[in-house]
Design goal:
This protein has helices at about 20-25, 40-50, 65-75, 100-115, 130-140, 140-150, 165-170, 190-200, 215-225, 240-250, and strands at about 1-5, 10-15, 15-20, 55-60, 80-85, 90, 95-100, 120-125, 155-160, 175-180, 200-205, 230-235. It has about 250 residues and is an alpha/beta fold. Bound molecules: NADP nicotinamide-adenine-dinucleotide phosphate.
């Protein structure tokens, strides 16, 4: 079942697909180690996603070669998908580095367009390093995203935040916010009310606390909150994807 992503002219499924595991298996917080999926596993997973009505893919330059693999392997038509990527963090040689300057954001968006083999990105979020307020108030990151939005490279902008104060401040300048919300960490719950008033698109990350909680109760909690549009669940297992959509549909 599709849902309008706040005031964005985008219709997404209640489950979206997180793609960290498409491209990165080092320095991640999942409970068990895993091998990166083969191209066939990704193509089959994306085809299954499409059949299930999961149309938003969440990726980032910091997710290893996730963007490149999506660009190479995406089935169907470009307009069938909502591509959400990020800017501000790069991951190379086993280490993350952050740069929220105008030049870095401009270069990173240009690189994402190239990697994803597209001439527009549906959503670009600032990939916070934890200093949400500094990024918002002391850097040109958002002004740069606004400029790229006006230019047509990006349709909607926002932030993947790490603090409640950051989420509240980011609401002022965001079409879409990506928030952590799960049974263990409910700190963003009050942000949802403010977001609903502004009709901001709300995507949730870490809904299973990165795989440490059961799918059914986690999704019932997360998607049961007013103001939440879609839960971005990371998986490379099409059985899990199917199960997540089933649980989401039964809420
Ligand atoms: N800073 C940021 O912007 C940020 C940070 C974290 C995450 N994110 C985004 O949010 C997405 C989700 O976050 P996450 O991957 O950290 O955590 P998550 O979605 O809470 O958990 C993902 C883990 O849950 C497992 N899983 C998924 N469905 C399952 C099911 N039905 N039954 C049992 N296990 C299941 C997955 O393993 P299998 O592969 O085996 O299914 C995976 O290891 C990421 O992929 C990313 O797109 C963004």
């Amino acid at each position: 079942m599709g849902v309008k992503l706040g005031r964005c002219n985008l219709e997404t499924g209640r489950i979206s697909l997180g793609t960290v595991k498409f491209g990165r298996n080092t320095d991640v917080k999942y409970p068990t180690k895993f091998e990166l999926p083969t191209d066939k596993v990704i193509v089959d997973l994306l085809s299954e996603a499409q059949a299930l009505g999961v149309n938003l893919l969440d990726t980032a330059p910091a997710y290893g070669n996730s963007e490149q693999r999506i660009g190479q392997l995406l089935p169907g038509l470009r307009q069938d998908w909502i591509l959400c990527t990020k800017t501000g963090e790069q991951y190379a040689g086993g280490e993350s580095s952050y740069d929220f300057s105008s030049q870095a954001v401009t270069d990173s968006v240009a690189q994402s367009l190239k990697h994803l083999k597209t001439d527009y990105l549906d959503i670009v979020l600032i990939h916070s390093n934890g200093d949400d307020l500094d990024i918002l108030h002391q850097t040109d990151a958002f002004a740069t995203l606004e400029r790229l939005k006006e230019k047509g490279d990006i349709r909607y902008i926002g932030m993947s935040t790490k603090s409640v104060a950051g989420s509240i401040a980011a609401l002022e300048v965001s079409d879409v916010l990506m928030l952590t919300l799960n049974l263990e960490d409910q700190s963003n719950i009050n942000v949802l009310k403010a977001a609903e008033k502004k009709d901001t698109g709300i995507l949730l990350k870490k809904v299973f606390a990165s795989g440490h909680q059961t799918a059914e109760e986690s999704l019932a909690f997360a998607l049961g909150q007013r103001g939440v549009h879609s839960a971005v669940v990371g998986t490379i297992d099409s059985g899990h994807l199917k199960e997540n959509v089933y649980f989401a549909d039964s809420i």
